[in-house]
Design brief:
The complex is a heterodimer of chains A (773) and B (604). Chain A has 773 residues and is of the alpha+beta class. Helices cover 62% and strands 8% of the residues of chain A. In chain A, a hairpin with a 5-residue loop joins strand 1 (575-581) and strand 2. In chain A, helix 6 runs antiparallel to helix 7 (124-137) and helix 27 (480-493) packs antiparallel against helix 28 (498-510). Chain A is flat, with a radius of gyration of 37 Å. The two termini of chain A are 56 Å apart. In chain A, 43% of the residues are buried. In chain B, the strands form five sheets. Chain B has an eight-stranded mixed β-sheet. In chain B, helix 8 packs across helix 9. The longest helix of chain B has 25 residues, at 579-603. Chain B is elongated, with a radius of gyration of 38 Å. Classes of the chains: A alpha+beta (773), B alpha+beta (604). Chains A and B meet through helix 2, helix 3, helix 5, helix 6 and helix 7 of A and helix 8, helix 9, strand 15, helix 11 and helix 13 of B.
């Protein structure tokens, strides 16, 4: 059975069963893969896999896992991480109930692809065997006949048998018969023709090739091949134009080697700069390939880097590339000629190094001051200068900056360690080493190294810096307590360490330790009296700590006028809205009167269904509004102020930070017919006598309807009552109102609270008949 | 003048051309209507440019289902008999092209001189009555049935302008239906700047307030109303929720969010594009970013280039630039709503939470906007990530299992939310959030996740050996650790890699898997260390564990047996492969309980 026939049938069935979304996503997955939309694949796959297991469709599971492997292995070359999955899927797809699934054929290809991408030439023979075995199981009418044939041709190419690969492609086309598209097997044919030196033929074929179903990835690969062919034919400008950009391919390692091949030729043709940035770009690619386990390709890219660095007269960079080649070659399980060619490259580098000249200036300072804009040159100059002045800390720091630009983090660590040995007092070097370890993610090393630095050097700056690196280590580990402890140690050695103080103040505030936050902010303001955020932070902490003197001091520093001179600030600064969050994290806002710089009193009854009632509560808010007036609006407002005072800006919204005084109210809902203005005013007055407040929530067009009794204008309102109010009297008053209305009125929460079960039941009937609440 | 003349051709077989136009260039016969409107429009523009007398430009469409006719009348320039012969009867040589070269900014629509031919695709006969502003005392009647031959004869003069009457072929009779034509015209002509009437209505069909054409000083509240009404006109399925205006030098328009629930992979992008006031495409979804399946737009741009059929757009640099503009408008608009309209923002989040998870992962600015507000499905309901992190002591736990694992059961008991990684976008979004905030992300049910959940504690070697001897079966390893809750003494977690190795290296695998494929698989499994098939994570914080470690005798043996039973029970939730162990463990538990009861009897 054709897998697509099954997919179509299966998704039709799903749609009939109301599972449109699943059907849609099943069809979407391969499209995302061929279009190189791999981030979207990663979002979709877990949900599809979950669904496949939920509905216990093992064929669907194979389908999803296969396309996931296509994305991750075929396109992204994630060999190392996904090889166990490919093996597991092979096992899964070859059980009694799964082996008839046509996609189980493709699963074999997924596994073969892991080896192709890990090291195509080394596993060439096994890949040929597997492809042959699979081709024997199917016939040319299967869609996978083409894929497996491509894989067979690719194995022949990796075994350096291009003519056989080409002949094979033609044989397979003949086997498919008249329906075969002569442009089939584009990649293999282009590669074979290129290897055979039949460039014009390859170019003509590639130019005409089309594959409407190939998606974006097919087009990109075709464009790269086009550039490879054009540049070999000396048409470098056209090649450059055809070649996709670095940004366009950097997320898809499947493109790397061929892209690098094209760039290499274009550079040699003199149509692209051969500079340190190119080397850095290639190194990023090679490291990514290595990390993914695509080792042969990683080695090849480093090999190109080596040659390019030599040709631009940077043998020391070529030396780095050789080291990378060596490291990768050592990981190859079947190295083939990689060690030999690495040796050759190393010899060439050594020869070039012997004659390479880089001038070192006469003093350490001159080497720092006269640095050019080529970091790979300066890197070597300073390295040589360090040989002359091996204990010059500034020089080492200068060198480490250039090394950092070249991505030589490991070398910085190694060199820094070596530097510190004979220079135990070079604490700045030691700190750079520690920071670099953190950046490399070597957190244990960073911790130990900084501890040793801390112990070794009796200098407050050094001790503070060492502890700061350890705080960063703790932060990277997500260990907030340790981070706080380390920062506290920093300030014992350097009480004016601003970053540490700020971080400590923030940690303390987040934990609700406002007294501690206040201490740090006091110091920060002493160091930096004119930084407004310090004052705002202090106002918040001081408000929560009842330090109104400090609130006034910082308010004055920020230019705010406070009328009272001492004690709590309780002014009317107009209406604002305070943003709260419920238990699930959803935000909601309540109107409030701003009573001071960071305080407000809530004047809106919050939803009685929520656990907490906020009406009447006093809160402290974050003074950064979520809806700051736009600068433009602000200017317009200023300009219009004289002639158009009615232009109203929406109230500012401030996120709540903490509660000063909790609400002393509870609330309930009343729903039903809208009382007349007279009735409502009387009710408000009576409720006010009991300190209860009414707030209507419904709009003017709210109407309710009864099947037999018709429609009524209606109102939906909240009532907030003090916790000690006489609720029974409120209920009686509502009963009186209800009796006066020609329609329903219900207050089930209050009735339930008062234990009036009969009334509650009666109101529930009304609620149902009039569709209330 | 001959009674019947042949259409002059430009080396084209007209019959073949009509077939090509009908089948390939134009997707629907309705296009004929659009082309006639364009011709009428351009004719009015021409009159404005060339004639000195002022006039009211207007177009009127009349449907007559009884006669099966569709008539388009305009008050434009009209045609002289020579012009009819030169332009109307010559393929690909519309006058508009000439006029455009002289008046680039006049707002002319036609471009390729093919428009009039579309009339023949839908008609049995085409009649054209015209009086030119140049010869107001003459009238002409052009008539053609097949499009290959025509007659041209004088007719009584009429008001200046042209009337084209199509006698529709039976196949396309619906174009004579008022409702059908009204629906088509109101889409095609919505932005046309001259009135288009559908007789007998006296109000133009395109009497639409276009948001980007209203005065700058219109109050915001009124502008918003106009935007919402306009968006609603273009939104067949969903109501608009909030609109953002789009403008730069090359394009103007409106983008809006739909007020209908979406899921992450819904693609309800609905984008209409107008060029020179006429609809070119109502499915230009590529102008909207792929992550915005919940958004719609109408774009008007005279720099976008239609394809020859005028039914699609050329994907050139202008197209890219306008796609960027649409994306930026949408992102900026979402920021604006989040800042200034919290209630609307809440609805946006509620309707499109899942789609926005995808959007946030596609664009860093959206991630920054949304990371605290979007919810992910968890074992404790849908929660935002800050709530998840707070309730998990600054960790993020994700499970990819479809069935609850023992760890998850644990977490539920502890009230710690575990994110359902099997739901769309949940895992990548949680990963992004954890990375940004330096929070450990624990993927439950993976080896790395287990290491984070159960950090090993170093035990003195002799104690480790003693506990191993007490608790382990063959091929198991002991990991002493401390974890929550202290009431849970241990967990037994099998090593999946070893299970896989054993399956693939068994002889039975040779029967079900081809030799070549199996060979490749075994290259991998040979590297898997077979010695540890399961790890027993022992909780040193559990009082029972502490006590058992110290005691010896029958009570200890019984206690150990019970612990092993518990481990097997918990593991059996996770994997069917351990179910056999479960029955023997249960037998052991019964035995252990007997022992304990005997001991208790002894105490009495």
């Amino acid at each position: 059975m054709d897998i697509w026939a099954w997919v179509e049938e299966f998704t039709d069935k799903l749609e009939q069963d109301g599972q449109q979304r699943l059907a849609h996503d099943i069809l979407l997955l391969p499209q995302l893969v061929v279009d190189n939309r791999h981030d979207e694949v990663d979002r979709l796959v877990p949900s599809l896999l979950g669904a496949a297991r939920q509905i216990e469709s093992r064929w669907l599971e194979i389908y999803v896992r296969h396309w996931n492997l296509q994305s991750r292995v075929l396109h992204r070359y994630e060999v190392k991480g996904l090889l166990p999955e490919a093996v597991d899927l092979l096992d899964f797809a070859n059980q009694d109930d799964t082996k008839t699934c046509p996609q189980s054929i493709c699963v074999v290809q997924d596994l073969a692809q892991c080896y192709t991408n890990a090291d195509g030439p080394a596993y060439g023979q096994e890949r040929l065997d597997v492809a042959r075995e699979t081709l024997d199981r199917i016939d040319p009418t299967w869609p996978c006949f083409r894929c497996i044939s491509s894989e067979y041709a690719s194995a022949l190419l990796d075994l350096d048998r291009p003519q056989e690969a080409l002949d094979f492609c033609y044989r397979q086309l003949a086997a498919i018969g008249p329906s075969a598209d002569p442009q089939e097997f584009r990649e293999s044919k282009v590669e074979a023709l290129l290897a055979l030196g039949r460039l014009e033929e390859a170019l003509a074929f590639n130019t005409d090739a089309e594959n409407p179903e190939g998606g974006e990835s097919w087009l990109v690969h075709k464009a790269i091949d086009q550039a490879r062919l054009l540049t070999r034919l000396g048409r470098h400008e056209e090649a450059l134009e055809a070649l996709p950009t670095f940004e366009a391919i950097i997320d898809t390692p499947a493109f790397f080697v061929d892209w690098v091949d094209a760039v290499d030729h274009i550079v040699r043709g003199g149509h692209r700069a051969n500079d340190w940035e190119l080397d850095l770009g290639l190194r990023v690619m090679a490291l990514r390939l290595e990390e993914n386990g695509a080792l042969r390709d990683a080695w090849r890219v480093h090999h190109r880097r080596c040659a390019l660095s030599l040709s631009r007269g940077r043998p020391w960079v070529a030396r780095h590339a050789v080291e990378d080649m060596r490291r990768v070659a050592d990981q190859l399980e079947r190295p083939l000629d990689a060690p030999l060619r690495t040796d050759e490259a190393e010899r060439e580098v050594a020869e070039a190094e012997a004659t390479a000249e880089v001038a070192v200036y006469e003093t350490p300072e001159a080497n720092l001051e006269n640095a050019s804009s080529e970091p790979d040159l300066e890197y070597e100059r300073m390295r040589r200068a360090l040989e002359k002045w091996p204990n010059d800390q500034r020089l080492w720091l200068g060198w480490s900056r250039t090394a950092g630009m070249l991505g030589r983090a490991e070398e910085i660590v190694e060199s820094g360690r070596a530097f510190v040995g004979p220079n135990p007092g070079a604490w700045q070097v030691a700190i750079v080493v520690g920071q670099t370890m953190v950046a490399l993610g070597d957190l244990d090393d960073a911790e130990a190294w900084s501890e040793a630095t801390f112990d070794r050097i009796d200098n407050n700056d050094s001790k503070a810096s060492a502890r700061f690196v350890q705080a960063l280590t703790a932060e990277a580990r997500g260990d907030r307590e340790q981070m706080q402890a380390r920062l506290e140690q920093v300030i014992t050695f350097d009480p004016k360490a601003r970053n540490s103080r700020s971080m400590l103040a923030r940690i303390a505030r987040d934990r609700g330790d406002y007294d501690v936050a206040l201490e740090h902010l006091e110091v920060l303001i002493e160091i930096e009296p004119d930084v407004p955020p310090h004052h705002w932070d202090r106002i918040v902490a001081a408000t929560l700590e009842d330090r109104w003197d400090l609130v006034r001091e910082s308010s004055a520093a920020l230019g705010m006028t406070i009328r009272s001179e001492e004690g709590p600030i309780e002014e009317n600064w107009g209406i604002c809205r305070i943003q709260f969050r419920d238990d699930t994290g959803s935000a909601f806002e309540l109107h409030a009167v701003r009573t001071g710089p960071v305080t407000a009193r809530i004047i809106e009854i919050s939803d009685p269904a929520l656990d907490t009632q906020y009406y009447g509560a006093s809160v402290v808010f974050d003074p950064r509004p979520t809806n700051p007036p736009e600068p433009e609006a602000q200017t317009n407002r200023d300009a219009q102020e004289d002639d158009d005072e009615d232009v109203e800006q929406p109230p500012l919204i401030f996120p709540v930070l903490d509660t000063l005084y909790a609400s002393a109210y509870t609330a309930f809902v009343v729903d039903g017919m809208k009382p007349s203005d007279v009735h409502f005013d009387a009710l408000r007055a009576d409720f006010a006598a009991l300190n209860a407040v009414i707030q209507v929530r419904s709009g003017a067009d709210y109407r309710i309807e009864h099947a037999a009794l018709g429609a009524r204008d209606a109102a939906y309102w909240y009532v907030a009552v003090p916790e000690d109010a006489d609720l029974g009297r409120l209920a009686e008053r509502l009963e009186t109102l209800e009796a006066a209305l020609d329609g329903p009125l219900v207050w089930p929460q209050l009735a339930a609270y008062l234990g009036q079960n009969d009334r509650l039941q009666a109101q529930e009937v009304v609620i149902s008949e009039w569709s209330l609440m | 003048m001959p009674q019947e003349a042949q259409l002059r051709r430009t080396q084209v077989n007209l019959g073949g051309l009509l077939e090509v136009l009908g089948k390939h260039l134009y997707s629907t016969p309705a296009v004929a209507l659009r082309e006639l409107i364009q011709n009428a429009h351009d004719s009015c523009i021409r009159r404005g440019l060339e004639a000195s007398e002022p006039f009211d430009a207007e177009i009127t469409v009349t449907c007559d289902p009884a006669r099966r006719t569709l008539t388009v009348r305009d008050s434009g320039a009209g045609l002289t008999s020579t012009e009819i012969e030169t332009y109307l009867a010559t393929v690909g040589s519309g006058y508009t092209r000439q006029l455009r070269s002289a008046h680039a900014d006049a707002g002319l629509i036609g471009q390729f001189g093919l428009g009039f031919l579309t009339a023949y695709i839908v008609s049995d006969r085409v009649d054209l009555y015209t009086t030119s502003y140049q010869t107001p005392d003459e009238g002409w009647h052009f008539s053609s049935q097949t499009g290959e031959r025509y007659t041209l004869q004088p007719s009584p003069p009429q008001p200046i302008g042209t009337r084209v009457e199509l006698t529709l072929s039976p196949k396309f009779h619906e174009l004579a239906d008022v409702a059908v034509t009204e629906r088509l015209l109101s889409r095609f002509c919505a932005l046309l700047r001259m009135p288009v009437y559908l007789a007998p209505n006296e109000t133009p069909l395109n009497d639409v307030l276009v948001p980007w054409r209203i005065d700058d000083d219109v109050p915001d509240i009124r502008r918003r109303r106009v935007e919402m009404d306009f968006a609603q006109r273009f939104e067949p399925v969903f109501a608009p929720l909030v609109c953002f205006s789009l403008a730069d030098d090359d394009a103007q328009g409106l983008v809006w969010i739909q007020d209908g629930a979406s899921y992450a992979t819904s693609d309800n992008r609905n984008v209409s594009v107008y060029v020179r006031g006429m609809l070119v495409s109502d499915d230009a979804r590529d102008l909207m970013p792929p992550w915005a399946g919940f958004a719609s737009a109408v774009v008007e741009s005279d720099t976008l280039k239609p394809t020859a059929s005028r039914e699609d757009l050329q994907k050139d640099e202008t197209f890219e630039a306008i796609a960027n503009l649409v994306r930026e408008t949408l992102i900026e608009g979402l920021h604006h709503v989040a800042r200034s309209a919290p209630e609307t923002w809440r609805t946006v989040l509620l309707r499109h939470n899942e789609a926005l998870l995808g959007a946030a992962l596609s664009d860093d600015r959206l991630y920054n906007l949304l990371h605290d507000d979007l919810k992910v499905p968890t074992s404790e309901g849908d929660l935002t990530l800050p709530v998840v992190a707070r309730r998990s002591q600054n960790k993020v736990h994700v499970s990819l299992a479809t069935r609850g694992s023992p760890e998850e059961t644990l977490f539920r008991a502890l009230g710690v939310p575990v994110i359902a990684g099997t739901r769309y976008g949940a895992l990548p979004f949680a990963t992004a959030y954890a990375t940004q905030n330096n929070l450990p992300l624990v993927q439950m049910g993976t080896e790395a996740g287990d290491r984070t959940l159960f950090p090993p504690v170093e035990l003195p070697p002799e104690q480790h050996a003693r506990l191993s001897a007490l608790l382990l079966d063959e091929h198991q390893a002991l990991v002493a650790c401390r974890f929550q809750p202290p009431d849970l003494p241990l967990l037994l977690i099998p090593d999946r890699e070893v299970e896989l190795k054993e399956r693939l290296e068994a002889d039975e695998a040779d029967r079900r898997i081809g030799a070549g494929a199996l060979g490749l698989a075994r290259l991998y499994t040979r590297k898997v260390d077979r010695t540890v098939r399961a790890r027993l994570y022992l909780n040193l914080d559990c009082p029972v564990v502490r006590r058992l470690a110290g005691e010896e005798g029958p009570a200890q043996a019984a206690g150990v047996q019970l612990l092993k039973t518990l481990a097997a029970v918990l593991a059996s939730h996770r994997d069917t492969a351990t179910e056999n162990d479960l029955s023997s463990a249960l037998a052991g538990m019964t035995e252990a309980l007997q022992t304990l009861l005997d001991l208790a009897d002894g105490d009495r």
